[in-house]
Automatic annotation (TrEMBL):
Top-level enzyme category: hydrolase
Secretion signal span: 1-27
Protein name, entry field: Putative CtpA-like serine protease
Keywords: Hydrolase, Protease, Serine protease, Signal
GO MF terms held by the record: endopeptidase activity; serine-type peptidase activity
Lineage of the organism: Bacteria, Pseudomonadati, Pseudomonadota, Betaproteobacteria, Burkholderiales
CDD domains tied to this protein: cpPDZ_CPP-like (cd06782), Peptidase_S41_CPP (cd07560)
Organism for this UniProt entry: Tepidimonas aquatica
GO CC field: outer membrane-bounded periplasmic space
Length: 487
């Protein structure tokens, strides 16, 4: 269904495969293999031979094998994936925070690419694309029928090449064509500002290779501008995750040296690990430690500053690691709504110079030993998105809603009544989507939710109230979602 693809992703990722993932990178593929099941391989060879000899048209050998590998990996869980040369390149670009493209944050709506926001200074920004624009064609290819991954791939390309986008702008009721020259885009995963005297807001939108450096630099600027900080709001709403070491490093900025941030456990001995707030567990390479530099340059203010962490259903994986660690160590108050619930770690194993598989290799656990797989982090204080309630919660898909997701620790098989209740929730989600679209049509060009970090951001205002010791308008309707699985 179209609304299930309503997940926003940076074009930096090249595909949503990069999102909702806590990734470890491994330089070489493992050299040990399990014994091969000869009977099943003979059957595979027989099917391969029949296709080659009997199919209505000739089929390329490489395509057959690649599709077989891709299907085998994809059948495991929603986060395991085979990378061909192009998608592997895009994945690496996504985690580095650099990519070549037009520079827009997008989602899918009714089968079309919807512009959530152009990246400031990007080719799309300079070309005049606006939030809410619908892309109906990429060059001469209609977007209707493409997946979001396929649409993203068509908009990406080599530097200084051109792409033609056909755009429908609802509030002006017109369609126009724009030619954009692709350029390298540098995404900044951290934004920060002093929202009022004594209080700062820091937003991490994704955990990338540059996140720790960006975070340290932004916080140093904040402390210089406001040396007498009284409290900080760490905003992880709609942060889909990213690199595990970046999450460990960010948590280390707030925790005592050596404190446990997260543990992992899987079949392999190397997947049984404990990650602590120490440089050896978060530095990707030898060199400057941005978190140690931040601690020195700010006199360790983050180690003692009162902190509120804002989360929602879009906070996943690496952002859940940070929230869970700060919650377990009682280092921060978690506010918002129950998070996505992705409690697994993926390892990228190269198969050659330009292909790889991203494979789920471990589950992760918060410092107290909690698995949040298919459950998520439950906030200490439930706070709605707006004074009127949660406008988008019914639309958001969580880990427990994904087909073939790993079962959580408390999940049970659904009864017939529970299956019907799940179908009813799906119907309610569809009805909520239609109501929101109708509301958008009545108010074209307006945001149904205020921008994160703005003075109209209701959850941010409640976080600031909590830091000041003022009353918080907590949700009276939001409740923890029970863990269920359709096994």
């Amino acid at each position: 269904m179209g609304h299930k693809a309503r997940i926003a992703g940076w074009l930096a990722l090249g595909a949503l495969a990069g999102a909702l993932t806590t990734v470890g990178l491994q330089a070489t593929a493992r050299a040990t293999f399990a014994p091969l099941p000869l009977q099943e391989l003979q059957q595979f060879a027989a099917v391969y031979g029949i296709i080659k000899s009997d199919y209505v048209e000739p089929v390329d050998d490489k395509k057959l094998i690649t599709d077989a590998i891709s299907g085998m990996v994809a059948s495991l869980d929603p986060h395991s994936q085979y990378f061909d040369a192009k998608s592997f390149k895009e994945f690496r670009e996504g985690t580095s925070g650099r990519f070549v493209g037009v520079g827009i944050e997008i989602t899918m709506e009714d089968g079309l690419v919807k512009v959530v926001s152009p990246i400031e200074g990007s080719p799309a920004f300079k070309a005049g694309l606006k939030a809410g624009d619908l892309i109906t064609k990429i060059d001469d290819t209609a977007v209707k029928g493409l997946t979001i991954n396929e649409a993203v791939k068509r908009m990406r390309g080599e530097p200084n090449t051109k792409v033609d986008l056909t755009v429908f702008r609802r509030d002006e009721n017109r369609t126009f064509r724009v030619t954009i020259t692709r350029q390298e885009i540098k995404t900044v995963s951290v934004r920060a500002k002093v929202v009022e005297p004594g209080y700062a807001w820091v937003r991490v939108s994704q955990f990338q290779e540059r996140t720790l450096e960006d975070f340290a630099r932004k916080l140093e600027e904040i402390v210089r501008a406001e040396p007498k900080l009284k409290g900080l709001v760490l905003d992880l709403r709609n942060d889909p995750g990213g690199l595990l070491d970046a999450a460990v490093g960010l948590a280390a900025a707030f925790l005592p040296d050596g404190a446990v941030v997260v543990t992992t456990n899987g079949q392999l001995e190397e997947s049984k690990a404990t990650y602590r707030a120490t440089p050896r567990d978060y530095l990707r390479r030898a060199g400057t430690d941005p978190i140690a530099r931040l601690t020195v340059n700010t006199q360790g203010v983050l180690k003692r500053l009162p902190v509120v962490v804002l989360v929602n259903e879009g906070s996943a994986s690496a952002s859940e690691i940070v929230a869970g660690a700060l919650q377990d160590h009682k280092r921060a108050t978690i506010m918002g709504s129950q998070t996505f619930g992705k409690g697994s770690v993926q390892t990228v194993r190269p198969l050659g110079p330009d292909t790889a598989i991203k494979l789920t290799t471990a589950r992760y656990y918060t410092p107290s030993g909690r698995s949040i797989q298919a459950k998520g982090i439950v906030p200490d204080i439930w706070v709605d998105e707006t004074p009127e309630g949660n406008l988008f919660a019914a639309l958001r898909t969580r880990e427990a809603d994904l087909d073939k997701h790993l079962a959580g620790p408390d999940e049970k098989a659904l009864t017939d009544a529970e299956r019907e209740a799940a179908r009813q929730r799906e119907r309610e989600r569809e009805a909520a989507r239609q109501r929101l679209e109708e509301e958008q049509r009545k108010n074209p060009g307006t945001r149904l939710l205020p921008e994160f970090g703005s003075d109209k951001d209701f959850q941010l205002q409640q976080a600031l109230n909590h830091l000041k010791g003022l009353p918080v308008v907590a949700s009276t309707t939001a409740t923890e979602r029970p863990a269920k699985a359709d096994n």
